[in-house]
Each structure stands twice: as structure tokens, then as C-alpha cells.
Amino acid sequence: MKYILVTGGVISGVGKGVVSSSFGAILRACGLHVTAIKIDPYMNIDAGTFSPYEHGEVFVLDDGGEVDIDLGNYERFLDITLNSDNSITTGKINQQVIAKERKGEYLGKTVQIVPHMSNAIIDWVEDVASRPIKSDGDDDDTPPSVPDVCIVELGGTVGDIEGRPYTEAFRPFSRKHHGSFCVAHVSYVPQPASTKEHKTRPTRQSVKELQDCGLLPDLLVCRSENPIPLPVKEKISSFCNVGLDEVICLHDQSSIYYVPLVLRDQGILEYFQKRLCLEYKVPLSTNVLSSWEALTKKLETVRREVNIVLVGKYIKLHDAYASVIKALQHASLQANYKLNLKFVNAENLEVDAEKTNPDLFHESWMTVCNSDGVIVPGGFGKRGMEGKIAVIKWCRTLKKPFLGICLGLHAAVIEFARNVLGHKDANSTEMDPECKHPVISDMPGHTNIDMGGTMRLGRQTTVFSKEHMDYSVVRKLYGNRKEIKERHRHRYEVNQKYLQELENNGLYFVGHTNTAPQETNVWKLAIVVARNGRR
């Protein structure tokens, strides 16, 4: 097993996740099996209870794990399926150590950060790295593959007090796996507007911090806004005690899908082959990244635009909708369109906004009106809910293409119940627990006492209704399959007692989970379609 530890310096959010994913994509293109682990040094057990403004969206895995968005990049770049154990947090490690202490497994010893916590970290990494993994394209009968390389990304920046136990754990790990272990340090090289010069001091200081932790960087990935000139690269090489070929300069790209190509062009494949003694299954003389070249070429040549508006409540941080944005980008490119995505705050579409801020109200509605389609993604809480319902009504009445995901789907059902069925007080029990017509209600067995890990999570099977198979657009998009498997993250669903009334008026439920409806008083809604121009 070969290990690549990716650390970060100077500032967070500099691109460690994309660099880690790109390393994996390049190695996978050479025929190697690659797995990935993300370490987040916070005390939370997982990302499930985070506000989207903390770290962006919560990415959901097949097994129901709620993890950092970087694992979404890993899955997209590597075409693999990860699980909850590929995400390490300080909360998980502490929970494991304390559980062992309570059972007396430390034989009366004083439990300490070193060696007990540090050993738990390494044991976790080695265990997950050795587990066979499945590729996304594999069917259920295809056996998983044993990884050749494990990429471990350490979140945060070197020197953070939260990350100290992890750098201390990898210090002896680097000796144990000498020759099979590589440290890639991602650092930021600023270019102040006042001087227009790239400054190397922050990178040199972050390398010193890493050395103080007992880790020596084998590879430096220097991030910058603009290309770094050769003299600056030579200076970084000299002061940080790494070879010139071990300094990778990575300036901002128009798309993250250029990053694997930039790394390849700077000799990363040859470096990993030499440093980790890798045996590539595809000769380097072949163009191993031809698919990535085709992707980026298409990005450059697509001319037709499609204008999509995303109506949400967390639009100040676009990472809160990272997976939705990626899906829209991929779908647009597949259809030979260039995505022009606009973000509209749902609160600005509400009636009250017309009084408090009329300019913003009319500007927001103008953006919606100029779109080719509207998407309302998930969220929690009632803030902005009436704005979402308003834009969905506009889409329905004007036959504008619309997609509601999670809370957006709930809002669509509420809007239909209010304006087509005439239940003016229809709502969700999330927004109004005492509403007269709870067309969306909480799911039995999913308690609100503990917020973390209590929703309906992970990969679920959706079965298409035989009654509605013939005219389901969604089913056609899935290749007319009888059932599909997608990931869920929700605590509320459509109330089954309203199903017949909704369907009688044109809102059809064409997909449901394979759980028998009689087992619960609510329908496990997956897909909604309306005929006669209503949705």
C-alpha cells in the first residue's frame, strides 16, 4: 500500500480537496486502484449538524454517512463509492478511544493523546486504506478491488491546535512506511496588489511549521491567482529544501477539471512513479488523460447557453449547493450547453420583500423571469419558504421547467395543495406543526430528539409506479428502468392520506420506495410529476 498525505498551509480553502482528487484521478487513469480518506480535526462526530455556512453542503454517502463536501469531489473524480469510515473526525476518534477506556481495554493505563489517540488514528487509516472499493460503473456482481494507493487529506492548516494529534500520528507513520509514504503540502503564494510580486514567505513559514511537527514535505503544490514565474519557483525550492521538480505551481483555473492536466504537465506522474515506486498498468507513453482533455475541450467550445435560476436560502455560500451545481454543470455539458447559473435568495421573492426592499424584489423576479428553468434545492426551516412556494406557483402556471429537490419538492406539494386543491392552510409539519392540512409530515421512527444521524439517510431504492410508467419523463431520463437507487437525506415526506386527492387533481407520484405503503401513514415520496400542464 502506498500513501499520499495532503496537508495545507497559510490559509484554509486553498484547494487541498481538488488537489487530492486530482492526484487520485491521475493515478486511476494509469490503471491503479485508488481510495481516499478525509480527516477533519473538529470535535463533531460528523458533518450532519453543521450549518451550510460552516463548511458548505453536507455530502451524503451510500451508507448514510454525512460528510464533508471534499468526499463528493473524491467520488466524482475517482468514480468510486466511499463510506462513512472514509471520513475521520476528532469526534469519532475520541468516541472510539473513550469507548475502549470504558471497557478497560487499555489495562489501567493513563489514556493520553500520545500514544492512544495517535495510535487510534493510524489504525483507522490503515484499516480503511486496505478495504476493497467499488467503482461507480461496477454492477452488484462485480467484486470490489483492493486499493494500490490511499490519499489522505488532512483538513485545516498546519499549525492549527486541532490538527496537532494528526501530524504527531503521521510522524512515526512516515518512518514505518518509508518508501511508500509521500507528503504533499499545498500552500498559498499571495501576490499583493501593491507590489504585483509573488511572496514566498508564507509558504516558507508553513513548511517550517510542518517540519516542526516532524514531517518533511516531499512535494510542494503552490497555489496562486496568477502563474508563478520560474525565479519564484526556484526560490521556494531553495528555501524549502525540495527539488525544483518537486515544486508544482498551480494557479487559478477557469474550471477544476483543468487541474489534473496542469499537474500532469508538470511531471506529477513521473514524480509519483519514482517517489513511491509505483508500477503503472498503463504506459506513460500513452495519453492517460485523454478523457480529461476531451472534457476540457468541450468546456471551451460549447457556445449555446442555458439560463438556470437556483432559488435557495444559503446562496451567500455557493458551496452550500455544491452537488447540485456540479450536477447542473455535468448535465448542461452532456447536452452541449454552457450553464449560466444565477442564484436568487428565496426571501427576496416573498410579498413582504416588495414592501421592505422593492428594488431587490423586482430584480429577483426579473432574474427568474429571464431563466429557462428553475431549481429549488433542499434546506431546513421556514425562512424563505413562502418565496419558494411563490416561484413554484409561477413555474406551474406559466409551464416553466422546474425541479424541486428535498425541501423544494415539499414546497411544490404544498403549493399544489394550496392553489389547486384549495387548502389555503396546507403546510409542512416542519413549518407549522399545528397546520390543518399537513400535506408534508414527519416520518415515523425519525426522532427529533437527537438531530445528528436521525434522518432518513443513504442510498434507497425507488420503484416506478406501473400505473404511471408510460408518461413519466423522469423514468425515461433513467433509461426506462423499473427501479433506481439514489441517496436521501430528509426527515419529512408526503402525507399518504392526501395522495389520492392530489393525484385526482393531476399531481402524480410516479416513484416510491420499496417499503410497503401500509407500514406507515406517509408515502415515501421520490418523484413527482403532474400532467395537463400543471407541473
UniProtKB/TrEMBL annotation:
Q: Which GO terms describe its molecular function?
A: ATP binding; CTP synthase activity; identical protein binding
Q: Name one GO cellular component term.
A: cytoophidium
- Residues in CTP synthase N-terminal domain copies: 2-278
Its GO biological process terms? 'de novo' CTP biosynthetic process; pyrimidine nucleobase biosynthetic process
DNA-binding found in the keyword field = no
Q: Read off the InterPro entries from this record.
A: Class_I_gatase-like (IPR029062), CTP_synthase (IPR004468), CTP_synthase_N (IPR017456), GATASE (IPR017926), GATase1_CTP_Synthase (IPR033828), P-loop_NTPase (IPR027417)
Sequence ranges assigned to domain Glutamine amidotransferase in this UniProt record: 317-514
Keyword field: ATP-binding, Glutamine amidotransferase, Ligase, Nucleotide-binding, Pyrimidine biosynthesis
Supply the EC number(s). 6.3.4.2
Kindly tell me the pathway this chain contributes to.
Pyrimidine metabolism; CTP biosynthesis via de novo pathway; CTP from UDP: step 2/2
Q: What reactions does this protein catalyze?
A: UTP + L-glutamine + ATP + H2O = CTP + L-glutamate + ADP + phosphate + 2 H(+)
For this protein, the record's Gene3D superfamilies field holds:
3.40.50.880, P-loop containing nucleotide triphosphate hydrolases (3.40.50.300)
Using the record, list the residue span of the signal peptide; answer none if the entry has no such feature.
none
Q: Which SUPFAM superfamilies match?
A: Class I glutamine amidotransferase-like, P-loop containing nucleoside triphosphate hydrolases
Claim: ATP-binding is one of the keywords in the record = yes
The record's PANTHER family line, in alphabetical order, gives: CTP SYNTHASE, CTP SYNTHASE-RELATED
Query: What function is annotated for this protein?
Result: Catalyzes the ATP-dependent amination of UTP to CTP with either L-glutamine or ammonia as the source of nitrogen.
- UniProt cross-references to NCBIfam families, sorted A to Z: PRK05380.1 (NF003792), PyrG (TIGR00337)
According to its UniProt record, which protein family does this protein belong to? Belongs to the CTP synthase family.
What's the protein here called? CTP synthase
**Which organism does this record belong to?**
Bemisia tabaci
